[in-house]
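Annex B, item 7. Sequence and structure tokens for protein A, then protein B.
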Amino acid sequence: MSATIVFGFFALANGERVKTFRAGSSTATYHCVYETTIQCTSGMLFPAVLRVYSPFNDVLLADNSVAFVSVKIAVPANVPHDAVLLEGIYVVPVPGDVNTEDYERHIPDFPHPMIVGLGSVTSQAKTLCDGTSKAFDVVSTDYVRDARMASTVCCVFDTARPRWSKTPVPNQNTVVFYVGRFADAMTLGGLQVELESIALNVGVVDAKSSAATPSSSSSKKCKFMAFVPKEGDHAATHPETGRAEQVASSSSNVSATNDHCELASSTTATHHSPRSVSRSMTPTDDSIVKGVVAVPAGRARGKGRRP
């Protein structure tokens, strides 16, 4: 159980159309392949190659075109000497003429791509040379270039920042879900990811969270409505909250969202036949007592009284 998705704005160049054949198939598949870079927050640049599916008559993007892309990623072990492989999911070019000076002026200031990953922690957390940053390796696999490829990134968070001061480091061989930005290159090679969010022990059942939730019949407040009123329903005011409720014009469509309201006594409900109820369900009828609309037996709400 693992996956890694990268999204952000990338500058593309040296586009090339490539025709490939899958093993055991004579059907050709066309891709557009572009050279690009992954820009890190430290200023470091990692070379990358983006491949995206392309129809037969597709047109290559001009050099230095900027596109918002969503890709799967494969990080080679000896990065940055080898290019990072990007497998396109969506590639949306920024409109405009790349040769004009103001082409990038209308592009959002978002030069550092985001990475979202789900993977296994393969190392014990260690403290970096600054004395406050914690680092650990996370490995995940994705289907890139028609094969399952493993990637390892080094996730880092700074405990000197208030938001990370009480965050525990993950244990080795546990699964984590993380969100971050590409930050730098590691000393011994590899990509460093500056974390923005992390979820620990993904897939482990929490005893507290697995407790049974209250059933729909338990009492609850009516402050929020769970259903959109249907057309033709009549509005009535809740006797306790003073808010408008929607009561169906027929007995079969009466709303049951306010389960906490007390049911009218069966004695009161039995004095209203279905025919008399359907006639009385208008806001001007005497069956409305203190803002309560009479409803069929077993579905009545509010503290109604015999008219």
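Protein B:
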Amino acid sequence: MAPSLVLRVAVAVATAVAASVVGAAPACAEAAAGGAPSPSGAPATLSPDRIALLHMVNDVWFFQELASTTLRNKRRYAARHGYELVVHTPVETSGLLVPSDACGTAREGPTGAHVRPDQAGGGGPDGRCWAPSGSFALDDRAPTFGKIKLALAACAGRDDFWLLWSDADALVVNQTLPLTHLVDDAYDILASKDWFMLNAGVLLLRCSQWNVDFLTKVYAASQFDHAVALDQSALGEFMDTPEAVPHVKWLPKWAMNVYTEEYRPGDFLVHMAGKLYEATPAGTAAIARQLDVFSRIEDISLIEAFFDTRYLLGSYSGTCVVKQGEQRDCSQHDERRLMLDAPLGDWSFPDRYKHVEMRHASNEGWTDAADVPGAMDIKVRRVPKS
């Protein structure tokens, strides 16, 4: 890299890290500016695009540090684009709505009750009064099924909203991209597959009557409680039925569900699937913090520069290792200097999925069947409501 570009990268990353530290310290301040509910628990504003994000984690210890980083990331993304946010963690349940009569004739009432135009089924004189609810609990089954239960609960008061479900090990890295670049009102579910099957770690679910009925059936299918992939097995089987096929749009993985090894600067969302086991909880949390720094940098060329250099990873990278008896003079290009074997960007370029075959030889030649011309075309675009 040229010295000027190195300096720009350093300044940008340092600024982003400082913002991350400042934003992480006063959690309540970031919540107020990051799409979190008001103190009463009600969304501060309604989403003109009718879009909400879902975030959930249970009390398992190895997810806590990682999930706190990804939640802060999603709060910022929701705030930036005016999306609502539904959260369920061991210390917070917010964003869920129940009918209320507290609005009276006012647009907003006590305890966070508020009128939601075009959202029938609520309380009050016109049936459009809704209030925040902190009542939600996971059932006694594999917690991954909780995403379906939370999505169904989040649809109350959000008719025709799109919900972005992303696992607690996923975060939005390119926050300049609105979800309207993905959602397609000709469908009810947007999803992607990896080399194994549907990956339910990232889903776009529309709060339509068809989808509420569909997700209710999936959640009730207790025969999948002991399936190999649990909720993924259930969702995958139901989504392949003739009834469901017209309602499902399969997107290329790179569009909505990029795994860590597949990341290229500019990608929308990164899902660190399996990293808690491969990189340890501490290592995965460190990766998430770095990705969150990238999410604060809008100049993609600066992120590209980070991935294009071999001088990474460690305070002594670039140090010339001189053994006893060797010549101490060490030029800039001396092979004894500590560097990566290849830039990090080589992992995903030119073949984004080279890691797939590395995982198992049987995956050789795998390609994303959804990654075809026209896959990103939108049949019915979402029109914002004022």
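Comment on protein B: Residues 3-24 form the longest helix (22 residues).
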